[in-house]
Structure formats: structure tokens, C-alpha cells
Amino acid sequence: MIKEGQLAQYTLKLSFDLRQVTQSLAYEFLLRDKTNYPMEDGGPLAGTFNFQQGDEIIVEVMATSAADASGRGTSSKDVLKSFDVKDCTFVSIAARMTQHLSMFDKTSACSGLEEWGPLEDATSPQDEANNICRMFKRSIRGLPVETKHGQWQISGYLSVELTSESGVPHTQLYFFDPEGSSGNGGGRASI
């Protein structure tokens, strides 16, 4: 649990499946100890993920696919051999024109992560039984929360290069749309 006034590092976990037909990413925020960091469910910041100036958000990406092509209706195109994250961009729209452009950058509405490293891939016995493979990447640096108070609609875009067992790489764009706030959301104090 984060104590008031204590800065935190959060993980934004994004996930997709090679076989999915949509471009939507599943997402969740986690605390350093990997417990879920829920969206505010009441009060003036309800419906937002609330952070404090100085907090940092690291991004992890999980790609899933069939583990092998032996399953019914599964081909080599359904089995992920490797993936690379090309970039992850956050576009912010401030709730008020008087706010900073983004919670991550006071002078730009766009913030991005371009350097990624591997995380250990993890497949559980249950995954093996269900023919599921999981691969992971993690941003090398995090996005610092720069703004003391404010609220933003955030659209996130993730560009990845996917290579299936068929050997043909292709790029894919996925997106997610959380709402974020910092401090008191800009409702009671100046920015």
C-alpha cells in the first residue's frame, strides 16, 4: 500500500494475443509488489487512475499465442516465434485548456517509450495444457508523472513486429484508452 506523500513506481501491463481480431489491448496497473492498482471508484476522481507528481510508470507487454500448431484449427500463423515492441506512445487530452498538455510532459501532448528489453517468458502448466505461449517485453525506462494536479483522457498506441512460426514478420498496431489524473485532479488547487 502506498502511503500519502510517498512516490511510487507502477507497472502498466498491456496484453494482446496473436490470434485476436481486434486492436484493443487489455491493460491493468500494478503496484511494485504486483498487486492490482485499481481505478478510483468514488469521489471527484472516480473513473481515473490517480498518480502523484514524481511517480513513475513502467510498461510491460505480454503477447500470447498458441504454443504449437498441433491444436485443432491451429496453424503455424497462430504460433508466435518472437515479437519486438517498436514504440509505445501516449497521447493526452487535458480535461481543461488551462492544464499542462500531459501528465508526463508539460509541453507536449505526446509521450513515448522506444527502448525495450526482454523479460523472462513464463508459461505455466495450465498454459501448456491449454496450448498457450506467453512472451514478455519491458520498457527500459519509465514515464515520470511531471504534473502536480490535472486530469487527462489518455490514448495509448503500441506498435509491434510479430513473427509467427510461418516465418513471415508483420507489424501490428494496438491501442488502449485509460483516463489518468495526478494529485487532486486539478479541482482544488492551481497547477
Mean pLDDT equals 88
**How many individual domains?**
1
Rg calculated over all Cα atoms: 18 Å
Low-confidence stretches: none
Major β-sheet annotation: 6 strands, mixed
Task: Please provide the count of β strands.
Answer: 12
N-to-C SSE string, H for helix and E for strand: EEEEEEEHEEEEE
Shape: elongated
N- to C-terminal distance: 26 Å
Seen as an oligomer or otherwise, the chain set is single chain
Strand content: over 45%
Structural class: mainly beta
Could you characterize the architecture of this molecule?
With 191 residues, the protein is mainly beta. The protein has one domain. It is built from 1 helix and 12 strands. Strands 1, 2, 4, 7, 8 and 9 form a 6-stranded mixed beta sheet that branches. Strands 3, 5, 6, 10, 11 and 12 form a 6-stranded mixed beta sheet that branches. Strand 10 (150-164) and strand 11 form a beta hairpin. The two termini are 26 Å apart. The mean pLDDT is 88.
